[in-house]
Design goal:
Layout: H1 11-20, E1 26-29, E2 36-40, E3 43-50, E4 53-57, H2 60-71, E5 76-78, E6 84-88, H3 92-109
């Protein structure tokens, strides 16, 4: 499947522009085959499947530590046991939240195998239905 076009004026486009200025962060087609991926040398940690939704590889240990705070956001969608969370992007606050969580995800991913190389781990949520997600 080809990558969707992400408009620079969309929330996803703003996140991509902000993260592209970070040292060591790069964009490429998403490893899952759907959309745009953002990653570091350790692998992709963020996938934009359209202009208003992203999947972030936050890792299970971080999700477990932050579960209560993440659960309070109506923009975040979690699947038990998954390394990835889904984030709905509609407002500047959503952009700020995602950029903050990307910083946490980069630190969490240091020393971990790439999501593609991690055969036992689940992939991002591109293939699963967005149950409970708006839109």
């Amino acid at each position: 499947m080809s990558a969707p076009t992400i408009a620079g004026s969309s929330c996803a486009g703003r996140v991509i522009a902000l993260l592209s200025a970070w040292p060591g962060v790069r964009t490429a087609p998403a490893d899952c085959g759907v959309g745009v991926g953002v990653g570091t040398l350790t692998g992709q940690i963020l996938h934009f499947h359209d202009e208003a939704y992203a999947d972030l590889r936050l890792t299970r240990p971080v999700i477990d530590r932050m579960r209560e705070a993440l659960a309070h956001s109506r923009r975040i969608f979690m699947v038990p046991g998954d390394d990835w969370i889904g984030i709905r992007l509609e407002t500047p606050s959503d952009v700020a939240l995602l950029v903050t969580l990307v910083s946490v995800a980069i630190k969490a991913s240091l020393g971990l195998p790439s999501p593609v190389a991690a055969a036992a781990g689940p992939s991002c949520g591109a293939a699963r239905p967005r149950v409970g997600a708006p839109g």
